[in-house]
Amino acid sequence: MKIMVSACLAGENCKYNGGNNRNKKVEALFDGNEIIPVCPEVMGGLPTPRAPSEIVHGIVINKEGFSVDREYRQGAEMVLKIAELERPDLIILQSRSPSCGVKQRYDGTFTGTLIDGSGITAELLIEHGFPVVDVEDL
Ligand code: SF4
User: What is the dihedral of CA 38, 43, 44, 48, to 10 degrees?
Assistant: First the structure.
């Protein structure tokens, strides 16, 4: 099977704080499957580490108050292009991220409050009909 995953789940240190979200269930899929790691925030041109961001009234803003919307959307488009080329059987994304979150994301107040909804990349992939799952649903 061809599986696209959030790169931080595969152990890449691409998370906003310079760490990763290494996940044992994802690692268990490394054997016998083709894994395609992607990090839309890095692909969109953002550095690591970087300020955390949330979606505020439809625009991605970082905690310092600067818009990073263009970078988030550019990264999402790049991930979509890879998905269209590679046609993965499954896409597993990190929970709650403003890019990768599938079911929930933070509400834009930087208070740790969650709301229903997807991140920018997850939403684009879902809109285009790709089989996207939240890592917590593995
Ligand atoms: S954008 Fe996605 S892959 Fe990159 S660090 Fe955030 S959750 Fe992980």
Answer: 100
